[in-house]
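Changelog note: in this version the structure field was regenerated for every chain. One regenerated record is shown below for reference.
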Amino acid sequence: MTARSRKGAGPSLEDETEQALTWLKRHSSKRNREGMARYNIPSAHALGVSVSNIRVLAKRLGRNHDLAAALWDTGLYEARMLSSFVDEPARVTPAQMDRWCRDFDNWAICDTLCFHLFDRTPYAWQKVAQWCDRDEEFVKRAAFALLWGLTVHDKQAADAPFAQGLRFIERAATDERHFVKKAVNMALRATGKRNPALNASAVRVARRLADSPQAAPRWVGTDALRELTGPSVTRRLIRP
């Protein structure tokens, strides 16, 4: 397996893609594939390769935007997971983000792309705002998975975009769909752990949701409050 092909040298894009797929097939197992069902991950287009092995291959390949696109176009679960680790965030376009997001059909692909690629692009905050009101389950989940990732990876962001994110969270908390509700909850918890000011804002949102007569927002708020007001988070936020 070679690293990124260079103009005029090394294997073609087609060869690199085929080599990557061959590597994935060699490191697949029926047991891994059958086990995906336990985590609500469809396996019809999967080989059964562990994420740890996918990351090993990604490290060997290095960053390669064209290869990532070719891997995504295969439709294979592991190839799409691999694309999140090898694509170049600076070369990802808003149109690509929208196109790939429409292809999301499970939480693992959605979250991996959001945590390892999309949240490192210049368009991450724009997509949170655009996707948070979408009807498609995994597009809407992507908005909050992306917000969740930004709480960890956007070290330079001020509090204002996260405060806006809390408004998106409160609005979306009424969505009863499991994969949306879980992402909304995780985004709320993650925002409230970023710093003391955002913790106070997130706790206020969580309390309002916990008082809701509707089941979905009540669960989101109650669950978030347990962590955001708990001793572990409180100690970490007051630590100098």
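Spot check on this record: The chain is about 65% helix and 0% strand. The chain has two domains: 1-87, 122-240.
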